[in-house]
């Protein structure tokens, strides 16, 4: 009887120890979906550009940033959050809208860009007008068509909330809520929005014997010939600003020119990543194209010789790239390997 009691006690103790270890791993480590883990660089990615020494990512800081990202109190009338225009299932874009829809259903002039792999970006927004991720949220918070608010009002509302003082203390060691801490917490969440688990990534990292199909491999070759000059691997953007021959609309968005005032930047916009195209439609800075096929047709048949058109697109004095319909089909097969279903479904990045 004594031996049996000892055996039961050991088994209970062992089970408790196992449960405790599982809880600790869930809080402090692991790479499973839904579990917090420290920022890590994917094996096939270059070193990040973000200055982590000024804002170290912690679990408490990330959790606070996630709550703020989905917090409608950041808008003037507490109806619009960052997550309203950057929806996870849509690759953190606003699926179905050509341009952003903000407070009071006001319309912006540009398509909501994806929040993805921002640690590797030195500029933000379609025109690159912001060069510090820790300042980027100020733009949508203060924009008349987006959140139409100011940081003084944001801080007032957060201070009056029963949870936020404690969350800020956990993240920054003090209940004092400041603009800098709000912005740094948001950065901690956005920096963890890393998309690096597509089929392409598995092939490049030689994971589990994953390989391209014949059509995907041929599409990869076409990508290297036709797209890689602007959409460079592995992030599938070179973070440059280019004029790609879009017709000028009545909005007359001059793009990068509004930031630099250089004539050569007129109608130039940030080169977007080709990752997760299955989720981020519509495409271009103004969301004018609904499908990837329409985008490819633009490059072969619809480009215009607009002022400042990038020389990469000019062939024998005429704008456009040469691709057959078969080329386009193969290229689209490769582009599908850049979709990261884990990224758009990861519970860690979802509202809690």
Cα shape: globular
Average residue pLDDT: 91
Pattern of helices and strands: HHHHHHHHHEHEHEEHH
| Helicity range | 25-40%
Any idea what the radius of gyration is?
23 Å
Low-confidence stretches: 1-30
Distance between the termini: 48 Å
Please, how many helices?
13
Strand content: under 5%
**Count the strands?**
4
**Alpha-beta classification:** mainly alpha
Brief summary:
The protein has 352 residues and is mainly α. Helix content is 36%, strand content 2%.
Which SSEs are present, and which pair or pack?
Elements lengths: L1 H27 L30 H11 L12 H4 L52 H5 L8 H9 L4 H9 L6 H13 L7 H6 L9 H13 L14 E2 L14 H4 L8 E2 L21 H11 L11 E2 L2 E2 L5 H11 L5 H5 L7
Explain what this protein looks like in three dimensions.
The longest helix is centred in the first third of the chain and has 27 residues, at 2-28. The chain has 352 residues and is mainly α. The chain is globular, with a radius of gyration of 23 Å. Residues 1-30 have low confidence and may be disordered. The protein is built from 13 helices and 4 strands. Strands 1-2 form a two-stranded antiparallel ribbon. Strands 3-4 form a two-stranded antiparallel sheet. It is 36% helix and 2% strand. A hairpin with a 2-residue loop joins strand 3 (314-315) and strand 4.
